[in-house]
Amino acid sequence: MKARSPRRAVFVVAVIVAGFSVFQYIQGARARAKAHECVAVTSQSGRYRAQSCVTGMDGNVFFYVGRLYDAYSGEMLARTDFDSMDGGDPEFMPDESAILFRGSGDSGEIHIPPNWLERLHAKIP
Fold first, then answer.
1. 105-119 pLDDT per residue, tens
2. Nearest to 69 by CA among 57, 81, 77, 79
3. Distance (Å, rounded) from C-alpha 22 to C-alpha 85?
4. Which domain of life is it from (predicted)?
5. Alpha-carbon gap, residue 56 to 64, rounded angstroms
6. Alpha carbon distance 75, 61 (integer Å)
7. Contacts 24+ apart (CB under 8 A), 93-98
8. Separation between Cα atoms, residue 19 and residue 56, nearest integer Å
9. Is the pLDDT of residue 73 over 90?
């Protein structure tokens, strides 16, 4: 009997992980497409607009999508997904260095200017 190649096992594991990641992404994109109960605020300077919308819930925990827009062009600059039990209302830092989504901990924060990952999230659904 032939021994199975370790490369084949690594390939199978990689395909399973990739498939799971694609499945999770599709589920998240569907939830973001059905976002509702949105709250929007404009920064003190008027350059940015932040929005948080409910994408789902599980018991007392609500799931949100937070978005940062250029207030003049309307272009989405960044996006983050987070959960919160205390509401996810957006709040700009006084110096406009970041937007925080209330009650979300570290996951509900977008830096201004957004980092590369936050900008990438804004480009894909």
1. 556 789 999 999 888
2. 77
3. 27
4. Bacteria
5. 7
6. 29
7. 94/44, 96/43, 96/44, 96/45, 96/47, 96/48
8. 23
9. yes
